Amino acid sequence: MPSSPHSLTVAGRTYRSRLLVGTGKYRDFAETRAAIDASGAEIVTVAIRRTNIGQNAGEPNLLEVLPPSQFTILPNTAGCYTAVDAVRTLRLARELLDGHALCKLEVLGDPTNLFPNMPETLKAAETLVKEGFAVMVYCADDPIQARMLEELGCVAVMPLASLIGSGMGIVNPWNLRLIIDQAQVPVLVDAGVGTASDAAIAMELGCDGVLMNTAIAHARDPLLMASAMKKAVEAGREAFLAGRMPRKYYSADPSSPTTGLIGS
Predict the structure, then answer these.
(1) Rounded to a whole number, what is the distance in angstroms from the first to the last CA of the chain?
(2) What is the pLDDT of residues 83-140, one digit of tens each?
(3) Is 263 annotated as a binding residue?
(4) DSSP letter (8 states) at residue 135
(5) Residue 39: burial class (beta carbons within 10 Å; 0-12, 13-18, 19+)
(6) Would the annotation count 192 as a binding residue?
(7) Which pLDDT score, from 0 to 100, does residue 6 have?
(8) Catalytic member of 104, 123, 130, 230
(9) pTM, to two decimals
């Protein structure tokens, strides 16, 4: 598909949707598929340590519900706390997915807050890139480390908006802007989105996309929230492209003409 201002290009492939979604935390695979359809997402991320995509014979296989012929499967390393574990997990994923190179790297530093362990993330990223993986990487909202990941060859950097599963939204938009302004690869917000306005704000800041799971799966109505997130990402992107009006504090600027008024 040809690129357009509304499409997202990652690792040389172009997608219509700038919304990426996870596949965990739903009631069952049927709800997973229905929510993803409602979101319009084309890239779906799968936790290899928690979801069966063929490694557990005899168990329900997610790929039967989300076939790679219809979706780009993005295996991730959720649950890994060392570079060694993350690399091993993605090697397994590549084998299960017939040589699929695109992956999402996340190396966690703490089981309570799930903040990324950046030294281990950098170590794993370097190894994976050398082995031919196309690495999209979950990272802290640190512009220096984001640049280091890009220099290592990662195809996208994915700073957290706030802690995974917190629903707190974007707590530090200024750091995100620093990362966006310097990056030559796509920047996607990953983690912390709670509702549609959070996704719209991320896109209005200039992010190239948003990845989420809990915000949809734990909504009262996941399918309706998935639809809302789709619209929010599209609206935020359009607002970014349109360019917002300047903020004018203490300066009245009436929207109606002031000339030719009756009695003037």
Answers:
(1) 57
(2) 999 999 999 999 988 888 999 999 999 988 889 999 999 999 999 999 999 999 999 9
(3) no
(4) E
(5) buried
(6) yes
(7) 78
(8) 104
(9) 0.89
191 is in an annotated binding site: yes
Distance (Å, rounded) from C-alpha 207 to C-alpha 18?
Answer: 10
Q: Any residues with CB less than 8 A from the CB of 167 and at least 6 apart, and which?
A: 192, 193, 194, 195, 214, 215
CB burial of residue 43 (10 Å; 0-12, 13-18, 19+)? buried
Is residue 104 part of the annotated active site? The answer reads yes
The per-residue pLDDT for 138 is: 96
Average pLDDT, the chain: 91
Is 23 marked as binding a ligand?
Answer: no
Query: Distance between CA 73 and CA 64 in Å, rounded?
Result: 12
CB-CB neighbours of 140 under 10 Å:
17
93 is in an annotated binding site: no
For 158-177, the pLDDT digits (tens) are: 999 988 888 889 999 999 99
Q: Quick one: 69 exposed, middle or buried, by C-beta within 10 A (0-12, 13-18, 19+)?
A: exposed
Cα separation, 101 vs 198, whole angstroms: 30
